[in-house]
Automatic annotation (TrEMBL):
InterPro entries: P-loop_NTPase. It comes from the Bacteria. The lineage of its organism: Bacteria, Pseudomonadati, Pseudomonadota, Gammaproteobacteria, Pseudomonadales. This is Sulfotransferase family protein.
Amino acid sequence: MDLMKMKVGLYHELKEDLRGKYVLDKILHNEHVVDNDIFKTVSPKIIFLLRTPESTIKSIINMGREPGMEGYKDPEAASVYYCLRLEEMKRYAALLDGNYFFLESDDLVNSTDYILSELTEWLGLKHHLVSNYIFFNNTGKAGYGDRSDKILAGKVINTEGHPCIEISPNLLQEANSSYVSCREYLRSCSNYYSS
């Protein structure tokens, strides 16, 4: 039902027939559980995008500075969330028998054309993916992904992150351990990954 609701919602927003096209559902939170039947029923193309702990945790903390998002500004809570998220990614990967594409966010930013070419081939697209994008009605709005001004660049860009936010070395060490474990698991099990 969630897939049908997503397609109907996108149809109303985009006013476009989506048959034969990919739609993207970005899953960022563990409470949004993907039923195992979805993997069998619709044969989705799964992409795991892994981001380093320091940049992720700083981004979460920065999001906590916005009104209504204060629960995200605690570094320890952000680190725990990050580590639990990585465990959930490994759990999903175990269900997919290697049938997913794995990449790291730094590769997407630093080798954009190469990664987009690899994804184009893996997805079997007729047209190559490109680094610039158009905005939708909800681009940059709460509840629809990235709310920073950087999303309004209209293209994949490298950002400086949040250098003024500090995270304790102990939290980073624990998060980095989870990151390395997840990265190695996703890389070793995937049939498709950027290298």
